[in-house]
Amino acid sequence: MSETRYANLFYFKNICRIGGTEQFLYEIAKKYYKYDIAVLYDEADFGQLMRLRKLVRCIRRQLGEIYHADKAFFNFNINAIEQVIANEYFFISHAIYQQLGYKPPIDHPKIDKIVGVSKYAVKQIKLQEEVQNVNKPVIQCYNPLTVEKPQKVMRLISACRLDDKTKGGARTLKLIDALDSYAEKTGKHYLWVIYTNSVGFEIKSPNVALMKPRVDVRDYIADADWLVQLSNDMESYCYSINEALCYGTRIIRTPLTVAKELNIPKDAEIVVDWDMSNVDEVVEAIFKPKKPFKYTPPADGWGEMLVKKPSDYKYDKMNVTVKPCARYFDLQLQKQMDIWSEPFTVSEERAMNLARQGLVRIVG
Question: Which CATH superfamily is domain 5-144+301-305 in?
Fold first, then answer.
C-alpha cells in the first residue's frame, strides 16, 4: 500500500476550546487551505475540530503509525516527532516559555529550524539557544490573520483565562471596581462580557457577564467598543488585540512588549500600568468620544514558509470517521459497539450527535 504524504504537517498535541495556538491553526487553515495542509493531533475540542475539518485534513494520531511530510511543524509538545518522517522539521515558538518556567524542545536532534512568531519571540528564543547550547536557524514569521466584517453587539469584551500567572486576574478586578465606581458617580454604564473557562475569584459586579468559551467570538469583538487584554508580559503574538484593531474596536491593554511591533494608532488604545496606578485616568478615557481609525496587522510570512503544493482536500460532510469510546447499541448499524470496535464512517450530523453524547470520538 502506498504511503500518504503531506506537503505541510502541523502536530498539536491538544487542540483546546480557546487559545492562541488554536487560533493560529484556524487562521493558517483559513488563509492557506489551498495548499496541502494536514493537522495531526492527540485530543481536540469538538468545535475547534469541526471548523478545521472544513478547510484542511485533520488526523488523530495513532500509536505505531508513521506520517510522511515535506515539512513538519511542531508546537511546544513534540510527542509525535518520532512518528513523523519529513524533509524538514520546524519548531514554532508561540510563547515566551522561559517566563512560564518551561524549556522549549529546540535541542531535539530532529528539529532543523525554529520559527518565532514575532521579533520579540525570535530575540527570546535566541537567548534560550545560548542557555541550551543550541545553534539553529531562527526565522521570524508573524502569525497569519484574516479579517472579516461582522456585526457589533456589545461594548467591553475579553476572551481569555482569568488568572494572575498569565492573564492578570487581579488587574481585571481593579478595573471592574473602578468602572463600577465611575458608573455610579456619572450614570455612564458599561457591560463587560468575558468569555472564559477559568476564574480564580468571584466577580460580583452586575455590569460583568461571564460566558462559557466559544470557538469564535469575532462578531462580538467587532460589536464592542473596547477589547480588554490585561495579560502579563508573556504574549509573543496576541490575536485578540490584532483582531479588535482590524475591526475598528479599540483596546485596553497592559504594557506588552510585543505591542511595540504593531504600530497601534495612538487614539486606538489605552495602556494600563502594570500596578494599575492610572486606573482612574483609564476609566475616564474609556468614556471620551473617539474618532474612527485604520489599522493593518503585520504581514505574515507563511505564504513563503509553506510548500506551495495545490491541495486536493475536499470537505465531505457525509464522510466523517468516528471511533467508539463507550459501550452502546447503534440503532442504525444494528450492532453493539464498545471501545474495541473498529472506526466507522457516518455523516457530519450523526458524528456530531454521537460525539455530544460521549459515544464516539472523531478521528478523521
Answer: Glycogen Phosphorylase B; (3.40.50.2000)
Opening angle at CA 314, ends 332 and 364, nearest 5:
50
Judged against a pLDDT cut of 60, whether residue 152 lies above it is answered with no
DSSP β-ladder status, 320-324 and 360-362: antiparallel
- Asked if the domains at 5-144+301-305 and 156-286 fall in one CATH topology, the answer is yes
pLDDT at 14: 94
pTM above 0.70, yes or no: no
Domain 156-286 has CATH 1.10.260.40: no
* Domain ranges within the chain, ordered by starting residue: 5-144+301-305, 156-286, 320-362
Amino acid identity at 29: A
State mean pLDDT over 93-109.
88
pLDDT band at 165 (very low <50, low <70, confident <90, very high): low
Closest among 13, 73, 84, 67 to 44, alpha carbons compared: 13
139: left (phi over 0), alpha (psi -120 to 50) or beta: beta
